[in-house]
Amino acid sequence: SSTIWPKALPAFRARCSRHPSIRFRLPTMSSVVTPPPSYLSVGGLRVHPTLAKVIVEDVCPGSGFSPTYFFQCLESLVAELGPEVERCLKHRDELQVKIDAFYEKLRANGVDTTKPDVRPQCQAFLKEIGYLEEDKGPVTISTMHVDPEIANIPAPQLVVPSDNARYVLNAVNSRWGSLFDALYGFDVVPQTAVQTPANAAEPPSKGGYNPVRGEAVIDFANGLLDEIAPLATGSWSKVVRLWPQFVGAVQQLKLLLEDGTATSLKTPALFVGAVGSLGPPGAKADGSAEAAPTAKPVNPDLGRIFLKHNGLHLILEIDREDKIGKASPSGIKDITVEGALTAILDMEDSVAAVDAEDKSKVYRNICGVFRGSLEAPFVKDGQQMVRRANRDVWYRDERGDAKMLPGRVVCLVRNVGHHMFTDMVLTQDGRTVPEGFVDLLVTVGAALQDLRGTSQTANSRMGSVYIVKPKQHGSKEVDLTAKMFGRAEEFFGLRRNTIKMGIMDEERRTSANLRECIRAAAERVFFINTGFLDRTGDEIHTCMIAGPVVRKAEMKQQKWIRAYEDQNVDIGLFCGFQGKAQIGKGMWAKPDSMKAMLEAKITELMAGARAPGGAPPP
Fold first, then answer.
1. pLDDT tens column, 117-128
2. Which of 15, 114, 392, 408 lies deepest, with the highest CB count within 10 Å?
3. Which 3 state secondary structure label does DSSP give 533?
C-alpha cells in the first residue's frame, strides 16, 4: 500500500544493492580489499592467479602482445578513467537523492504524484537538476565498416550466457537451421488428433517420426514457398522436379509440375545458385538428355537449390534417396533457412559470473569464439560427440562461379556496466577495479585474431569489434565508454573506431536523453535497443518515492512504455541508422512457444526494429 511503501523503501533499496539477480541495483563504488597471498604482482596491480592464467594461455598467444603489456594497459586505464567512473556513479546517487527529496516534498504537501497535471512540474525539476540534458539539435551518425548482418538485413538476434561453451556454440551456429525440424518439433504447425497416433504415449516430436505430421510440415513449407518465392504458374505443392538451367550466360531455376507443365519462379532473381546433381532433367546415364523433362529422373536428384528473399537465404535440400525426400513429390527432404544473423555473447545479466573462476570461464569461451577453436564435448544417444563452430557454406552462383555464405552469426559481446567492480584485479592500495575495464581489454585482445585474419573462422568481415555496453545513464557515461574504447584502440594499435558501441536504451536517463547519448558515440554506435524488464525496473527504482506502480501485465499497456518503444525507433531513424546501425527489441524468453513468438515479433519489425531478440535453446 502507499502507506507502508515509503517505510519499506530503505530495506528494499539495500536488498537491490546487494542481490546480483536484481539488475537495477544501486551503483557499487570501488572498495578496499586485502590482497590474498595467492595474488600475483604485475606492475602496480595484484591479479588473481586464475585470471592471470587465462590472459597468459588464452588471450595473449598470437596477439603480438605479452601478458605484462596487457596488465600495463589495464593499469593505465584504471589510473586514467577509473576516477571518471567513480564520478559518474557518484552523480547517479546525487541525482537520485534530489529526485527522492522532490517526491517526498510533493507527497508531504498532499500532492498526488500520479496525476497528469504534476508532470510539467516534474519535467521542469528534471531540467533544473541536469537530469534532462540540453537538446543540441539533430545528429547523424557516421559509423563505418559495419557488417551487413547488422547494417542492412532485418533478422533475429540471440542472447546467450557466455559461460556455457555448448550454449555459446549453439548461438554461433544458429545462422542456419532446419525448417522442417523447427516446424515438426514446435507449435507453429498445430498438433491435431489426426497427427497423433491413438496408441502414442507422448507427442510425435518425442516419440519417433510421424508421417502424418510430416506431411503437415511439408504442406506448411510449400505454403511458405508460395508466399515468398511464388511460381509463374502453379504452386510448390505440385512440383515434381527442380533444376538449374542456363539461359544465356545466367542460370535460372526451372520446375516441372505434376501435370507435366514446366514453369519457373515468378521472380527469377530469387534464385541465386545451386550445387549437386540436379539436371538436366531426364538425363541418361551416358550424359545425354531426353527430349522432355520427366517426373521420375533417370539419375536420382541430389543437390541444393539456393534462394534469397529479403536478404536471407533458403536452401532447398533435394535428396530422393532420403526417407523424407522420397515422400515429397519434389524430392525436397528439408529447407535449410538462414535464421539469426547476430548473437550477443553475454557477460552481463544472463550469466552468473561472480568471481575470478566464473569470469575466467567466460573469457576463455570468448577467446575460443574469436579464434574459431571453441569446442564443447557432449554425449548423445550414448555416443561421445564434440560441438564446434560451423564452416562456411559454398555453392555455385547463377553464373556458375564459386561463392561462399557465412556459416555462423556475427558475434557481439556484451560487457558489464560501469557500476560493476571486481576483486579479480586490485590496485596497489587494494582497491577493486571497474570490471568493465577488464571485459573491454579481454574482448578486444581476443578479437585481434579475427581482425588479423589468423582465426580459424571469420567473425567480422568488415574488420570491426562489436561491444554492447549496458546500464549507461545519460550521455556522459556514453562518452566515458567512448573514451575507454579509444584507449583500447591505442593500446592494441587499431584503426580509430574499430571498436563499435551498442547502446542499451534500458535506463531512464538514457531514454530521456537518447539523442544526446547517440551524439556522444556518433562515430562508433552500431546498435540501440529497448528492453521491457530493465527499463521498467529503472523507472520503478528512480520514481520509487512517488508511490506504487501498476502490475506487470498493466505496465505493458501504459502510455509511457509505448512512447519509449516508439521514441527509440524514431530517434534511431532520424539519426541516420539506416544502412549503418541496428535497432533492436527485447528478448523472447519462451523458446517452446514459437507460434506466439512469430505473432509477437513480426510487430516489432513492422514498428521499425531490425533485430528482434531471442534466446537460443540449450
1. 999 999 999 999
2. 408
3. helix
